[in-house]
Design a protein that fits this description.
heterodimer, A: alpha/beta, Rossmann fold, 2 domains, 7-stranded mixed β-sheet, 6-stranded mixed β-sheet, 15 strands, about 20% strand, globular, B: alpha/beta, Pyruvate-ferredoxin Oxidoreductase, domain 3
């Protein structure tokens, strides 16, 4: 086995993208994701790829739009305010069915906010963010090893279904260091087949067009309906989640990313106090693991969502369960750190009170 | 074994370096580890702190909110982190720079004059290693030898004599005992 390496989350994400065959990166600096472009700036030339520090986030996403149209595995990354600037470009990539990969290392917001870790971009990531009807495949890692491995899955899904993909992480995971275990063999992009839609030298083949618009009557409707079929296939086969100690649990914590790590600690504390608590961790945020939550509601009495936001994923939990079980929220907005102690205290409050309806706990 | 550690001091005291080194040593020793730095607009002379977890099993949260051990290297850090230490936990105090005395009776106190020891070894910069040596000996979470083995992995450009100086500092720190 290769020697384990201690890496920052941001570095692992960058290395993971390169191992997954990414050969073009364009970005613009912003804390707390600066290690990604910094890493790419020296690593890309080593693998024959290209790194561009663009003049702005808007420029970077449009470079990815162009690179993606040629079928190359490409990436851009930023943090919350910068991801907002990229939204128009992401919408265009979605409209042109391009398999581009985006990293969002979330920080405090709204506005310029601060540079600490937060989870306030869930809606932006899963609801489109940009204009128009579209989806983005969104994965939420909870450790540095997952940050290193998820780009592989993102590129795989992106190319299989022609959809932009995103790793949604935060400043905590981006800045922390852990041993990394890269699980996938490295991909040599030269070994990948040329997609049958990719632009390039057209000699010996028919004309190809990459575009996000169609002015013919009903043209866009046809494009969208064709895309919806791919979205449905993703929803049917690409959902990922993790469960911990749910077998005998009365209450399930529901959390993603760094909040899920805190929730594991809270779950262990609660178990020591005799409370039957487990954890449900959505790994793909879109597609959201709706069906599994419904199955669990047959035996789990209530669900407690833990988020470092005002409460965004909680709405997906509510929509999934559709009244089948009470849902509670422990929310920590404003880029403030969640501690296991406070989550455990919230659990005790909820379980003793036995609240029957939706409640936000403080 | 599950050790949540907070290390805190002035920027420039080697707080972050000590944290990374501890994580690297734990990993090389076959343990599960995490390291998380406070990364505000930090600067030399400002405050710096980091969270490290060294565990025999899974590391849950990397945010160490109730440290099993707090290593405080300057005066403001004592005021900030003494109240956070888990009851029965350990507080390592750099008495070279901290004049106040801790007030809690439910935690163990280990006083180490880190700067004085480092100066005695001929280089004040290794004061963070004195503190790590004291931590290793007092908790048994990681051995001094494991930290010594990690040094050239984290600091690849260090000359052998500088590594030796750091190892000496670790060993001197390990001689201090909880009061």
């Amino acid at each position: 086995m290769a020697e384990k390496k201690l890496m920052k989350g941001n570095e692992a994400l960058a290395e993971g993208a390169i191992r997954a065959g990414c050969r073009f990166f364009a970005g613009y600096p912003i804390t707390p994701q600066n290690e990604i472009p910094e890493y790419m700036s020296w690593r890309m030339p080593q693998v024959g790829g290209a790194f561009v520090q663009a003049e702005s986030e808007v420029s970077a996403i449009n470079m990815i739009y162009g690179a993606g149209a040629t079928g190359v595995r490409c990436m851009t990354s930023s943090s919350s305010p910068g991801i907002s600037l990229k939204q128009e470009g992401i919408s265009y990539c979605a409209g042109a069915d391009l398999p581009v990969f985006i990293g969002n290392v979330m920080r405090g917001g709204p506005g310029l906010g601060n540079i600490a870790g937060a989870q306030g971009d869930y809606w932006q990531a899963t609801r489109g963010g940009g204009h128009g009807d579209y989806r983005t495949f969104v994965m939420a890692p909870n450790c540095v090893t997952e940050l290193g491995n998820f780009p592989h899955k993102c590129f795989e899904v992106s190319f299989k279904y022609r959809i932009p993909s995103m790793v949604l992480t935060d400043g905590l995971l981006g800045q922390m260091m852990e041993p990394v275990d890269f699980k996938h063999p490295e991909i040599d992009p030269k070994s990948l087949p040329e997609p049958d839609w990719a632009l390039g030298v057209a000699r010996g083949r028919g004309k190809r067009i990459v575009k996000s618009y169609d002015l013919k009557e009903g043209g866009v409707e046809i494009m969208v309906n064709e895309r919806v079929k791919r979205y449905q296939r993703i929803e049917a086969s690409e959902v990922m989640y993790e469960e911990k100690m749910l077998e005998d649990a009365e209450v399930a914590l529901v959390a993603y990313g760094i909040s899920a790590r805190v929730s594991v600690a809270a779950m262990k504390m609660a178990r020591e106090k005799g409370l039957k608590v487990g954890l449900f961790r959505p790994i793909t945020l879109w597609p959201f693991p709706k069906a599994r939550l419904v199955e669990l509601s047959a035996r789990i009495k209530s669900f407690v969502v833990v988020e470092m936001s005002l409460g965004q994923m909680v709405e997906d939990v509510l929509l999934s369960l559709n009244g089948r079980a009470p849902v509670h929220l422990y929310a920590k907005p404003g880029a403030s750190l969640i501690t296991a102690e406070e989550v455990c205290a919230a659990l005790e409050k909820i379980m003793k009170k036995g609240a029957k309806e939706y409640a936000a706990v403080k | 074994m599950y050790q949540g550690i907070r290390i805190s001091g002035f920027g420039g005291q080697g707080v972050i370096s000590a944290g990374v080194l501890l994580a690297q040593a734990g990993m090389m020793d076959g343990k599960e580890v995490s390291f998380f730095p406070a990364y505000g607009a930090e600067m030399r002379g400002g405050t710096a702190n980091c969270s490290v977890v060294v565990a025999s099993d899974e590391v849950t949260t990397p945010i160490v909110s109730m440290p099993d051990t707090a290593i405080v290297l300057n005066e403001p850090s004592l005021a900030k982190f003494e109240p956070m230490v888990r009851p029965g936990g350990l507080l390592i105090i750099n008495t070279s720079l901290i004049n106040s005395r801790p007030t809690r009776k439910d935690i163990r106190i280990l006083e180490v004059p880190c700067n004085a020891i480092a100066a005695g070894l001929g280089n004040g910069k290794v004061m963070n290693m004195v503190a790590l040596g004291a931590f290793a000996a007092a908790t048994g979470a990681i051995s001094v030898d494991a930290i010594a083995r990690a040094l050239p992995k984290v600091y690849k450009k260090l000359k052998p004599e500088v590594i030796e100086l750091n190892v000496n500092a670790l060993r001197r720190g390990a001689e201090f005992k909880v009061n």
